[in-house]
Each structure stands twice: as structure tokens, then as C-alpha cells.
Automatic annotation (TrEMBL):
Organism: Emticicia aquatilis
Main subcellular location of this protein, as a coarse class: membrane
Entry superkingdom: Bacteria
Localization: Cell membrane
Membrane topology: Multi-pass membrane protein
TM ranges: 21-43, 84-105, 166-184
GO cellular component, one term: plasma membrane
ABC transporter domain span: 367-600
Record key words, sorted: ATP-binding, Membrane, Nucleotide-binding, Transmembrane, Transmembrane helix
Phylogenetic lineage: Bacteria, Pseudomonadati, Bacteroidota, Cytophagia, Cytophagales
Name of the protein described by the UniProt record: ABC transporter ATP-binding protein
InterPro entries: AAA+_ATPase, ABC1_TM_dom, ABC1_TM_sf, ABC_transporter-like_ATP-bd, ABC_transporter-like_CS, P-loop_NTPase, Type_1_exporter
A GO molecular-function annotation: ABC-type oligopeptide transporter activity
Amino acid sequence: MKNYFRLLSYAKPLGGFIVPFVITSILASLFGVLNFTLLMPLLDVLFDKIAFEAVAKPDSIFDLKNQFNYYFGLFLTQYGKFGALQFVCGVIAVSVLLANIFKYVSIRLLEKFKSNMVSNLRQAVFDNSINLHLGFFSNERKGNLISRIVTDVQEVENSIANTFSAATKEVFLFIFYIASLFYISWNLTFFALLVIPVSGIFISTLVKRMRRDAGEGQQRLSNLITLMDEAFGGMRVVKGFVAEKFISEKFRTENQGYRNAIFGLAARREMSSPFSEIMGVFVVIGILLYGGSLIFDGKSELTASEFISYIVIFSQVMRPAKDISNAFSSAQRGLASGERILELIDNQPLIKDKSNAIPIKDFGHSIEAHNVGFSYEGDVEVLKNINFTLQKGKTIALVGSSGGGKSTIADLIPRFYDPTGGQITIDGVDMKDVSQHSLRKLMGIVTQEAVLFNDTIFNNIAFGENVSLEEVVAAAKIANAHDFIMQQSSDYQTVIGDRGTKLSGGQRQRLSIARAILQNPPILILDEATSALDTESEKLVQEALTNLMKNRTTLVIAHRLSTIQSADQILVIHQGQIIERGTHDELLKIEDGFYKKLSSMQTL
């Protein structure tokens, strides 16, 4: 129940919803039950069984029973039985009208409540997700995240919010019906309520099984979304390796698992409705037999009209009882989804700003790594005893074999991760004491894979900045991108497709460089930005990078050594350690040096 109420709390502001919803639900229930209690005088009038004693007009308008009796007697006296019948029918019509007006208002309030809850919940999940540390996204499957934000939140709307409606509106209706039954005959009502413990035990057993099926179903759905995302995103590989059948079989396995889980959930959920209905019919039969025997033996004070009204009202009691039962059964799928959502909301980023984090506005003189060590969540150390100083306006290049730790060093500079040993400082201040936002605003990052969005070229370069077309064009020209942009169908307003698939690799990379140029950061991190390009594209991109690096402090990860020969210092990284450092010429003079071997292999 804790998770249930926590999910409901996202429908803020709750105060402005609960009070009017409860009031309208109570009034809708009250007038709804009143319609059936009016059957007794209606039947008495129709079958000429009126036993009425005139009453004085009550002082309070809220004394509904005596108010009704007063006007009923007035109409009966002045207009006869047909007048009394007209009065009763008129009261029923007004009661039905008011019941449905209040019912409609309560439904509108409920829909607003649901939309607020779903919107706020989805926003909270997304906001918390994008603020998590980078390592979280390395371990988590993207399809699973999308499933939680989309399908799980939707399931909460369909199940939890509807349960809340049943737990309020239907409960009020149920209470009013029971109160009416006790008013008519308390001994028959006690007899009828004997069925409730039996139904409760049966439904609670179903609920436990349904929670398990619901959890498995949502996990299977996450797996399906992940598989589709990977298959459609890697369709070139799927086609190239003729792996359609393999992917199809993986999808079939997950799809069948999802089908079985959902079928099991539905089978148990739908069992509660016929069970409640069967029990209700059996109780009605029992009441007919028991109540009839009392009337036949003269042991009951109930009139025929009261007994018939009792049966009619009791038949209506089963509807809210069944709705409440079904709602709580259906809620199990929503609670399973809610647990997955709250798990994501409760996931805290490993990289956090301190309460007194320092905002930095500019870069003064240097970034320094002091005896830095790093390991991923308790694994073997990736970096050991890393020391270097990146002076303002200088370029340091990182080279070495794959898996040596170059990219990890680059990820530590903008605090995508924190060192597990040693420290990194910027202008003498430990980066852990600096706010992440201000630190990253000083940095521009260009990676090996150009990350672009299914949007216009203009929006990809501007990327949320409030800039003019002239500024975007200027950045594109520096990045050697303007010419190919002007050749597109709508130049800067051309939509480039999912992840920029309508462009070549070199064109995508130049757009990402233009984006970095527009940000005008004093510090650059270039992670093998040309390694995946052909010779012609590499030349254009390298020129763009050279323009970008002018008068900036740069950390470069290089695969092709020809691109970093002019670096002020080259660090050779091997197995997480710096084994050589110096300029290009100095490193080539080291006999049997690692850098010299790399250079020889690339020359060959």
C-alpha cells in the first residue's frame, strides 16, 4: 500500500482534487441509491397498498424522509393516487438527473487527476533518468528504460487510478446500499453479509498470484521493446549476417513468454467477476428463501413492497462490490509497473554535486591529474597512478592499444565518472568540489560516433541554444560543413533522419564539430573523432578540428598518430598506466618504445 499511495501522490495538487471528488462521489452515490428506495412508495401506490400517516412539515430541509412523506401526503390528499404517483415519479426523475450530473462531474475530476498523475510521474521518471551517472546507461538496456517510462506509466494510469475511483466512488455507493438494506431489514442484511469473508479469502489468494504474473509480464514487455530497438537500430548487421531468423526466434521466445504471463494474469483477473456474480446470485436466492419463509410464517414485519425493494437494492449492491473486487484485481498489474517505476525514480546518481559545490565561470590555467586510479563498480582497476598536467592553450594526446584506458581518462575530465583513487583538479580546485553544470559548460566533446537527432540541421547544431541562423552558419563554415548543408533539399532546415542516417559519416562528424564550435568552449575533448572515416572525409574533418582547436585547451584521443604529431605532449597509455610521455619526435627516439612501434605499424 505504501507504493500505491506514493504513486497517487504524483497527482499534485491532491487537495484541490480530493475534496470536490469525494463530495461529488458521495452525492452521486446518495441520489443513485435514493432512486431505488423510492420503489417502495411507488409499488404501494401502484398496487393500492398505501398505509400512510400524515406528518407535519419538517423544519429542516435535510430531513429528507419526513420532507418526502409530507409532500407525498399532500399530493395524495389533494390529487389522489395518481397525483401521488406523479409526485413519486417526479422525485425519481430529479434524483436520476442529480445523480448523473454529480457522476459526470466526479468522472471529469477523476480524469484530470489521472492525467496529472501520469504526466507528473512520467516527467519524474524521465528527469531522474537523464540525471543519472553515465555508468548507469552503460549497464541498463535502453528498451527497458523506454518501457518503464511509456508502458509502465500507462499501466499505472489504467490500473492504479481506476482503483482509486473504485476505492472512493464505488465504496460510497456500496455503503449507501448497505445502509439502505439495514434500514429496511437488519436481520436479512446480516444473513446476506455472511458471503463477504468467503469472497475476501478467494480474492486475496488471486491477488497474490496476479502480482507475480503482472511483474513477469512487464519484464517480458521490456525485453520485447529492447529487442525491437536493437533489431531495428542494427538492421544493417541483421541483413548483412542473414540473421533474420535468429532475431525472429528471439522475438518469438519473448513474445510467447509475454503472452503466457498476460494470459495467466487475465485468467485470474476475470475469475473474480464470475465468482462475485455467482456468490451474489446464491445470496439473493438464499434471501428469497429465508425472507420468504419469514413472511409466510408471519415472523417478518416486511411488506411485499419492502421485500421487493430489498431484493432490488441488494441486486444493485453486487455491482459496486464486483467493481471494487475487479479494480483491486486489476491494480496488481499497475502495482507491478509502479514498483518498476519507483525503482527507477529511487535510483540515485553516483556522481553528485556537494551541497556547497563551487560554480566556475572560466578556465584559468590548468587541469591536473594526481595519482588517479579508477575501477568500474569494484572491477579490476582500469587506471593506475595517472599523472599529467594539461596547461591552458596546450594539447595533450592520448594514444595506445584498445582497452588501455584512454576513453576512461577522457570521461573523468568532465566528471562522467569520479576517480576511485587520487584526484583531478581544475585551476587547483578538486573537480569533486565543482558543480557539474558549470564544469561541463566549459567543455566541448566530439566523440568517434557523432550523436545527432532526428531533427533539422539547424537544431542539431544549435542544440537548445538560443542562437541566430547567422551564428549557426558561421559555426558550420568553420567546421567545413556549410557547403554540403547548402546542397541539401532544405539546407539548414533539412531533417537528417534517425541518428543522422541521411548523411555520411564525415558529414555527421562535421555537424557535431559545428555544434561544439557554436558552444565556444575553452576546453575540448576529442575522442577518436576521425578514426571511423575514409581518407577524404578524414581530411575535411581534420581541417575542421584544427579550426576548432585554435586557441583552445585540448585533450585528444588518437587512433591515427598522423593526426596528433603537433600535440604539445603525447601520453602513451597501456594497461591503465602511462608508460611513455613526450612530443612526437621525443617518443620516436625511444628505442623499442611502444609509441615507436605503433608509428612503424601505421607507416607500413
